[in-house]
Write a structure and sequence with these properties.
The protein is about 10% helix and about 30% strand. The chain is α+β, with helices and mostly antiparallel strands and about 90 residues long. The strands form 2 sheets. It has a two-stranded parallel ribbon. Strands 2-3 form a two-stranded antiparallel ribbon. It is globular. It starts with 8 loop residues before the first strand and ends in a 6-residue tail after the last strand.
């Protein structure tokens, strides 16, 4: 599990900006679950009541940073490293 900062999120057809200090950037297609309203401590039985829909997410990662840091935070958190969409189903 990992988090992407809001500065990583971009819409479709917007260019991903590759930081000059990285040498290896990978991308992975992911299923994004779109939460439709604020929630906290939701039970498994009611969790689907908060799901608005699903979309495609491009999980972009600077692999050399991931290997060097040993964690995902910086490697996955660069600006523009989370293109989303264009459709929520």
């Amino acid at each position: 599990m990992f988090l992407k900062p809001t500065s990583a999120v971009i819409g479709p057809n917007i260019a991903i900006e590759i930081p000059p200090e990285t040498q290896r950037v990978d991308h992975e297609a992911e299923l994004g679950v779109v939460i439709g309203r604020r929630c906290s401590r939701v039970s498994p039985e009611t969790a689907m009541n908060y799901v608005l829909g699903y979309t495609v997410v491009n999980d972009v990662t600077a692999r050399d940073f991931q290997k060097r840091d040993g964690v995902f935070a910086r490697a996955k958190g660069f600006d523009t490293f989370c293109p989303i969409g264009p459709v929520i189903l």
